[in-house]
Amino acid sequence: MKVKKSRLDxxxxxxxxxxxGSQEEMLNELAKEGFTLTQATLSRDLHQLRVxxxxxxxxxxxxxxxxxSQYRHEGEQGEMRPAAVIQETAGYLSIKFSGxxxxxxxxxxxxxxxxxxxxxxxFPEIIGTIAGDDTVxxxxxxxxxHTAVLRALRSIIPNI
Amino acid sequence: MKVKKSRLDxxxxxxxxxxxGSQEEMLNELAKEGFTLTQATLSRDLHQLRVxxxxxxxxxxxxxxxxxSQYRHEGEQGEMRPAAVIQETAGYLSIKFSGxxxxxxxxxxxxxxxxxxxxxxxFPEIIGTIAGDDTVxxxxxxxxxHTAVLRALRSIIPNI
DNA sequence: GGTTATATTGGAAAAATATGCATTTCATGG
DNA sequence: CCATGAAATGCATATTTTTCCAATATAACC
Lengths: 160, 160
Fold this sequence. Notes:
Strand content of chain A: 15-25%
Largest interface: A-B, 31 and 31 residues
Radius of gyration of chain A: 17 Å
Distance between the termini of chain A: 38 Å
Oligomer: homodimer
Number of helices of chain A: 5
Largest sheet of chain A: 4 strands, antiparallel
CATH class of the largest domain in chain A: Alpha Beta
CATH topology of the largest domain in chain A: Gyrase A, domain 2
Order of helices and strands of chain A: HHHEEEEHEEH
Number of domains of chain A: 2
Helix content of chain A: 25-40%
Shape of chain A: elongated
């Protein structure tokens, strides 16, 4: 189906853009984008996207996207590729290296999203990432140089 | 308060031991442990612990503990009390090494729990861990080989 | 101790979320 | 084009979770 696919994309976009605290809220945002659907359908969509309701910093509830897993398991549906790589430099500030680790600093709260995109790229140069609030740690594959990492990252962070 | 503290501990233990899909379920488990409380109180407890309801691998809902090493903010009671080591393979998928870092990939949402257990073991081979959603990073002690790490981990991940 | 602020809790109700069932839509292979 | 099975969806409802309010219990302070 065409509608559902783009709706799921819209949901991902909205979740990574603003703070949504309930399905009703999300329903309103989706309505602004021209999607008409009921809460029942949204519940199913969120379930499929594995979106979770967490507790934000001020104790508020908030829906958040999961980090996509690099490995697909049996029974696991839901391919989670973002439509396109972000061309904007979404919060990127700096990158530093230390041995086989790279530390990327971002503006507050941007680390998760950036890590999300890096994960999705499945770079062979990077074997894993961990994100905090404004820091992303990358573990570099053995035998891979820093420039190789930079070159890879440049595809999603042009001005790195 | 004494009761609440130990109750929160019990909740953590239960969550890392078995799969809980609803607050009612948790209430039953807590009752077995001798805790009497209403679902309203449990909802508040879970909120305070920042426990989240995620979607498990078979599409089932499941409550999971927050990541141990991240999201530790001011007010939160940070002590993750030592729990009995549980023999479980919970979500383990793979492990890769790069220098003094090991990256364990798990099924979605299992990383926090796994890191929790590894931390509790206090392996001399592992000086620290960081957990994301489906990734655990281990910082290996200087002069320790990869096989030594595997050997240590085998006590909690038999089929590693 | 006595008094006042803070935290904890239960009960009930509100709010939010999930799901069974029927219907429509979509995709596929004659 | 039509039949057929699968997917998507809405509606109504069941289930689950959160929150309001009042009652205690706990802690802090003088």
